[in-house]
Amino acid sequence: MTSDRKPDVTPVGLFDVAGNRMVDAELWDAIAEKNLADWEAEWIPELFKLLQALNRKGVERRFWPQSRHWDWRDKMKAIEGRLANQSFSIVCQDMTQAMMTTDVTKRAQIASQKNDHLVYVDFLEAAPWNRREMTQMPPRFSGAGSILILAAIEQSKMEGFRGRIGLHSLPQANDFYANKVGMTDLGQDAAYQNLRYFEMTPEQAEAFIEKGRKK
Amino acid sequence: MKIEVTKDWCEAMARQEADVEVGAGLIAADPIFNGEAAHDTTFDESRIALGRFVHLMRRRDKLSLEALAERADVDLAELMSIEFDAHYLPESRTLYQLAHTFKVSHKKLMGLSGLTKPKDVQYVEEAVRYAARSESIETLSAEEQAALEGLISVLSEK
């Protein structure tokens, strides 16, 4: 299920929104048992509380977070032992703040890089308390999404794919991938539950990295 | 695999990310609490009726989710999924426990859930109709009470 290997740790930082300050965090190049335990013991109960609140407010189900069913333990079981898949997690204050899995078997669709290899982001999710759409409140920590996208880009470079990545965005996150990350929106994909497919070229990858260097 | 990144980069990107969502990935392609891998929309309406039935009965009996889970001896997370999520395919045992608790037909709850294919679809259609008449508010209104009585009637052993 999860690798016994101790994950490589990259020191990163997340923005503590309430405290208006950066806090130390770690990017792990794995989803370890600790991350899955956090998901089960902390994410799920928090998610249910939020769903209950949405329901009591009369919010229609179609507006509930689409990732509410994701079972990260099953996701990890599904890719166990597969060399084509990689997982990442972000830990801050001894708690998992976001997780991602990637796949290197997919090919690019943008004309300029058609059929070239890329790193496909299978799943990316932030902890419930880091999601404005669920709490209708400012997130506890922000920045995990960008760090995970950077990790996917770096994985792509290491694989020789020059930073090319692709993903299907959840509807609430289209704005992030189109406008903040700067990926190309290839529109709704009927083969993928009509989610919008976004792809990044090597040039867009460099622009994304450069964006964080500008003060 | 370690990556090259500075705290300044993290801060610059975090500040622009604070007001957006970041999730990506197929919604229903994974096995969801052991139930949704092959999501069949055929049963969405009847599962909504099942969820509404459990919800209304719980409120009629003034039970919290936790209290009903304890009384029926079912898992709290599964109970919440049944009430709130029409995609969720419940466990057979859970439906048996709920049918026993609410004194309705286990077979009919199985039919509503999609775990079995009911020969008589009329009660399913009626249950869906009754469920559609109820709305979620704190106390049962007269209309909800009537809808619930209708649901009990069609889901009881005859």
UniProtKB/TrEMBL annotation, chain A:
Top-rank taxon: Bacteria
Protein name, per record: GNAT family N-acetyltransferase
Lineage: Bacteria, Pseudomonadati, Pseudomonadota, Alphaproteobacteria, Hyphomicrobiales
From TrEMBL, chain B:
InterPro entries (alphabetical): Cro/C1-type_HTH, Lambda_DNA-bd_dom_sf
Protein's name in the database: HTH cro/C1-type domain-containing protein
GO molecular function: DNA binding
Pfam families: HTH_19
Domain HTH cro/C1-type, chain residue ranges per copy: 51-110
